[in-house]
Amino acid sequence: MDTKILSGKVVSESVYKNIKSRIDILAAKSINPGLAVILVGDDGPSQVYVQNKTKTFTNLGLYSETIKLKKETSQKKLLEILQKLNDDNKYHGILVQLPLPSHIDNETIIKSINPKKDVDGFHPLNLGALAAGKPTFTPCTPKGIMRVLEYYNLDLSNKHVVVVGRSNIVGRPISILTSLKREYSNATTTICHSGTNNISYYTKQADVVILALGYPQFLKGKDIKLGAIVIDVGINRVKNTETNTYKLLGDCEESSIKGKASSLTPVPGGIGPMTIAMLVENTIEAAEMEL
Ligand code: NDP
Q1: What are the catalytic residues?
Q2: Predicted pLDDT of residue 135
Q3: Residue among 289, 266, 207 nearest 34 (CA)
Q4: pTM
Q5: Ligand 1: which atom is nearest the Cα of residue 275?
Q6: Positions in the chain short of pLDDT 70
Q7: 193 lines ligand 1 (CB under 6 A)
Q8: CB atoms near residue 151 (< 10 Å)
Q9: Ligand 1 close to Cβ of residue 166 (< 6 A)
Q10: What local confidence, expressed as pLDDT, does residue 90 receive?
Q11: Ligand 1 in contact with 271 (CB < 6 A)?
């Protein structure tokens, strides 16, 4: 079977094209959407993610600022900085890059972001609204997955979706989104995690498998049924010991999935670019609250 590649690059370009008119409307009212990103410590991948995010904002003529803090920064200091950003009208969106150093409590930090500026959609109020199917800032990666499915006209209604992973960032919210009673969703969703015995028992029954576990090449061709759609969210930096270089691998084994799946999001170039595009879109939405 020919496996169609679902390109997040292509879909994100269409998002940026469509967003231009919204930016123009805001500009006409002298509103320039602004994002503040807080980066604590010197985690390599986090630095790359933040750079990619802010570069995209700059390319679109939007304002963004990265506040880099030492990894020893206290939780109290971080809370003070967040309070200032909450009160500063320049910033419509605030993002705290995760993971945070272990002496800082993620939940306390996320809860202290003004929910109206929580463009990552991780605040409990926004996650609760999402679960209730109410308008909210939807976490960027799950929102990006849904946008890819819509773009390629892959309707989930009456389909069985199996999500592997239950984090608040990807697995949990995408399991909610796919099962909501709304266009392109309305699926029967099963969520698997480290407490699930024999995950392939579930994935073999799935019309759509969404992988968000962070385990390189976890899902093989033998674990899916012919014609399944595979959405691979995983980004795993894996070292080639012979060449001493790193490469990015997803959570599925592309070589055996290709030819068996009907569609697949690649790594890189699949869900990654969508996460950034949805961050831009959420920041525009936050700025539009001023209109
Ligand atoms: P987390 O580590 O927060 O969550 C991983 C989830 O997968 C947990 O629920 C965990 O179970 C489950 N899990 C881990 N290993 C196994 C296993 N062997 N079998 C079954 N379940 C397992 O990760 P994230 O959700 O933040 O990210 C997941 C992946 O997606 C990562 O590779 C990350 O880099 C990538 N990612 C990509 C993004 C993108 O833009 N493309 C954005 C965000 C993340 P349990 O709950 O029991 O611990």
Answers
A1: 53, 97, 120
A2: 86
A3: 289
A4: 0.97
A5: 40
A6: none
A7: yes
A8: 17
A9: yes
A10: 96
A11: yes
CA of 174 to the centre of ligand 1 (A): 12
Ligand 1 pocket test, pick from 106, 213, 251, 274 with the greatest ligand atom count within 8 Å of Cβ, gives 213
Residues 231, 265 contacting (CB under 8 angstroms): yes
- Centre of ligand 1 to C-alpha 261, Å, is 22
CATH number of 140-272: 3.40.50.720
User: What are the residue ranges spanned by the domains of the chain?
Assistant: 30-115, 140-272
Predicted pLDDT of residue 190: 98
The answer to whether 281 touches 19, Cβ cutoff 8 Å, is yes
Element (H, E) at 238: strand 236-240
8-state DSSP, 167: -
> Does the beta carbon of 63 lie inside 6 Å of ligand 1?
no
Q: What is the pLDDT of residues 118-160, one digit of tens each?
A: 999 999 999 999 999 998 899 999 999 999 999 999 999 999 9
The single-letter code of the amino acid at 105 is D
Beta-bridge partners for 248: 237
CATH topology of domain 30-115: Rossmann fold (3.40.50)
**Single-letter residue type at 42:** D
pLDDT at 79: 98
Cα atoms found within 13 Å of the Cα of residue 265, Cβ hemisphere only = 33
- Residue 143's nearest CA partner among 23, 203, 233, 47 is 233
Q: Are 198 and 234 in contact (CB under 8 A)?
A: no
Report how far ligand 1's centroid is from the alpha carbon of 211 (Å): 8
d(CA 62, CA 64): 7
Ligand 1 contact via 214 beta carbon (within 6 Å): yes
On whether the CB atoms of residues 161 and 188 are closer than 8 A, the answer is: yes
Instruction: Tokens 């990015």: give the residue.
Output: 248
C-alpha R_g of the chain: 19
Nearest CA to ligand 1 atom 35: 234
Q: Determine contact, residues 271/250, Cβ cutoff 8 Å.
A: no
Tell me the C-alpha distance between 251 and 247, whole Å: 13
